[in-house]
Design goal:
This protein has 10 helices and 6 strands, in the order βαβαβαβαβαβααααα. Strand 4, helix 4 and strand 5 form a beta-alpha-beta unit. Helices cover 49% and strands 13% of the residues. With 217 residues, the chain is α/β, with parallel strands linked by helices.
């Protein structure tokens, strides 16, 4: 935890004015807010101008995703700590955030309780992941998939499609509707996937999808 929070320079990025106002009200008594950004085209220039210690970044900005913005910011300002603030709870989204270089991931619904702790944590060079992320998603993101001996990771195109949707938390019914196949066919593909991989839980399926970069994003 920093000795003096008020010395920590924070930049806030969100396309909704009311969200920015709420974040300001929440954080201004504890940190130095150096800039607020509402338009995605201003993110990089403002960051270079103000050189914040931490950037709180909305993951779903119009014009550029928070993931893409994170990659760009990390190339230009490798020392800046980036915390994505979002409604996205899927494992593939959390994984993509950290792959892009994010240091923290906070869900908007718990931001008021977690943001100050998240800032302290990333400044201590540790990763922060929202406590309200589902346990199976946290498990899939924090622990890599390792192929059991004797099992194959060679999936068909259709099996990869089904797995990508499973990794996003889609139900069998949702997958059937999106792929225009029956629910029984989805279950058939899922059974074959688990047999090939030698796994039995949804968490392990998600781990494999993350490890192999299998996603529909």
């Amino acid at each position: 935890m920093p000795l003096d929070r008020q010395m920590t320079r924070v930049m806030l990025v969100d396309d909704h004015p009311l969200v920015l106002e709420s974040l300001m009200e929440l954080l201004k008594p504890h940190f130095t807010i150096v800039s607020t950004v509402q338009h995605s085209g201003d993110i990089v220039s403002r960051a270079i101008e103000h050189r914040p210690d931490v950037i709180l970044l909305d993951a779903c900005m119009p014009g550029i995703s928070g993931f893409a913005a994170t990659k760009e910011l990390k190339k230009l300002l490798p020392k800046v700590k980036i915390v994505l603030v979002t409604m996205l709870t899927e494992a593939i989204s959390v994984s993509e955030a950290f792959r892009a270089g994010a240091n923290g991931y906070v869900l908007k619904q718990s931001a008021s309780d977690e943001l100050r702790t998240a800032i302290d944590t990333v400044l201590a060079h540790k990763r922060f992941l929202s406590n309200t992320i589902e346990p199976q998603v946290r498990e899939a993101v924090e622990h890599e998939w390792f192929r059991p001996e004797g099992y194959s990771g060679d999936l068909t195109g259709r099996q990869r499609e089904v797995l990508a949707l499973l990794s996003e938390g889609r139900t069998t019914r949702n997958i059937a509707q999106q792929l225009n196949i029956s629910r029984k066919t989805v279950e058939f593909h899922k059974a074959n996937i688990t047999h090939k991989l030698g796994v039995h839980t949804t968490s392990d399926l998600i781990k494999f999808a993350l490890a192999q970069g299998i996603t529909s994003l």
